[in-house]
What we know:
Layout: H1 3-18, H2 26-46, E1 53-54, H3 56-63, H4 67-76, E2 83-85, E3 92-96
Antiparallel strand pairs: 1-3, 2-3
Helix pairs in contact: 1-2, 3-4
Amino acid sequence: MDQIEREIEAALDDLLDHGDWGVVTREQARPILGDMVDQILAARRERAPDPDVLTAAQVAAHFGVGHSTVTDWCRKGLLRGTEQVGIGNRKTWRIPRSALDDFEPPRIGWVKGRSRKRR
């Protein structure tokens, strides 16, 4: 049993000892909670990091730019095959490693012919 499984088992034991289970006995609750633990662990294994997919922070470190610069590239479609995952403020970009093979970062600086004055 690995560390995560031990922590979940300890939390379940604590819940059973101090929780309000009414007429449910420890022996009756254990199989139900055990199934929940199996589902949680299976979901964690499925979400294990994919070595062929990078985060915006990893791509930013690779090119020596900021995280927000990479998210702008993704939003503009400059990096091919990117996918935004998550909900609300917890969204993140998944960038395939193959997208970096032929990617040339745009030049940073002033755009020639653009007025510096804003009205």
